[in-house]
Design goal:
It holds the Pfam family Pkinase. The chain is an alpha+beta fold and about 550 residues long. Helix content is about 25%, strand content about 20%. The chain has four domains: about 90 residues, Phosphorylase Kinase, domain 1, CATH 3.30.200; about 190 residues, Transferase(Phosphotransferase), domain 1; about 35 residues, no CATH class; about 80 residues, Immunoglobulins (Immunoglobulin-like, Sandwich). It is built from ten helices and 20 strands. Strand 4 and strand 5 form a beta hairpin. Helix 7 packs antiparallel against helix 8. The two termini are about 55 Å apart.
Amino acid sequence: MSPRSQHRRPGQHGPDPASASGPPDIPGMSYLEPLGSGGYADVHLYQQQSPRRSVAVKVLKGRGLTDDLRRQFVAEADTMALFGNHPHIVQVFWADTAPDGRPYLVMEYYPPPHLGERAKRKPLTVQEVLRTGVQLASAVETAHRGGVVHRDIKPANVLVDHYDQPALTDFGIAGRGGADADVADTGDIGVSVPWAPPEVLTGDSNGDVAGDVYSLAATLWHLLVGRSPFAVPGGDNTQTGLTTRIKRSEVPRTGRADVPLSLERVLARGMAKDRRLRPASALAFARELTAVEQELRLPPTPVRVRDAGGGTVLEGPGAGPEDRTSVKAPSRVQAQPPTPATPYGAPAAPPAAPVGPAGEVEERTVRRSDGPSGTAAPGRAAGDLGPQRTPRLIDEDLVPPAARPAPDGPPAGPRGRPGWLVPVLAAAVVVLLVVVGVAVLRPRGAATPAAPTPSRTVSTPKDTSALGDAVYTAPTVTARASAGAVGFTWTYDGPEKGDTFRVFVGPTKDAAQQAAPQTVTTPALTQRVAAGTTRCAQVQVVRGGVVSPPSDTTCERAL
């Protein structure tokens, strides 16, 4: 945090900001170039002198500066600072007022272009869109859990860092309020029509969780095609024309042959006209995207969401309770001491990542500059703790035994060698010669492949056409109350022998969606609880290692 004051009232002293224009003169910073301009603010690139780094400075325009805009600007700074340690939300370093009276934010710098420009030049691949969607949904879910809805998710508000990681920015019109209800704002809000949900365009909502899910789905559609979902090449793409189609027309398909039907359906559900038919949360939307990743046999993208305790829940498709890793945020990776040699001369295995209570593993995404020269903090090299890294498995049979005291018996041979060492070494030489001889005589192409690194995998059937459409249809859950129990049953299209089910259970809808899954083999589950206790459940169907979209979360209270 900068030592600069953050309590100065904008415009309280100094010249009238209405007469100011251009980049402000900021102490300790050197202006470099403009980055962009919006309706009420400009963004410039500056060089911060200490620590030396490039930063983006967002400054309110002096002309037309009102008290409402000032309050909105301060709220944006507070909101982004609240979630700024999330790896996919742009970090705000500090806020202050320039000598000319204009408020400004100093933010992490992301080089252009933003994802909107990238998609315009060349649409993203399916894998890139799925990965980006899960990462952005993680950021949006984190904001929702903090009581904030973004209300302006669009490709231009997704920046990309030097490591090709996306981050959500521009919380300028974000609303605070209950995450499960409409935001209580009554004033006018800005609307980016091409990606806005129909209920916002009709004035029935100021934006809520379902609205953010819609805009996120519309953004992913845009990244696949290079234009917004309801823009028609050569057609009427005025705000009036777009608004009419958004309110009345069905969600069009992307038209790309490489986009699977399952992804088309996920995006269509996300942009459903009736917000009750959309995924219940950004987390549920992320799970639908990870199901498509599994279908396509792509590397799973971790879901990072801040939980109620302030940590980060790491979730992957098909993950069980042992795979839900709580990441302490923020955490600092300490430099490791020199690694001692083993009795065999090879370096000892480095210590595992620090493990806290209940299996919490400290982890950090290395993405931002931590030092004056842009170097990472001492410790692990950048990338050592990537999002898909799993604990290394060690075969105990391959671990050298601990040093033992010398056994009783004859004295050691020459130069202090134990008497048993010579025959052991001789036997080892014989074995080595045999192995080398076999390798030399083996025909080309018959070499045995190296053993793969142990990892958790999800089995996928050889014939993926056998999966059918049912696995991509969310099940319908019914809850029934009885004395001291709540029972859940569910139905879905095209059940097949061998289907299993992931059930997320909790005392509330939010708790159920955050819970570790239980795996059951029949479409029913009964929870024994005290009378008057509520239980909620969300269900996914698993077939051939592919997970269906989650059901709506259903609740009931025991009698």
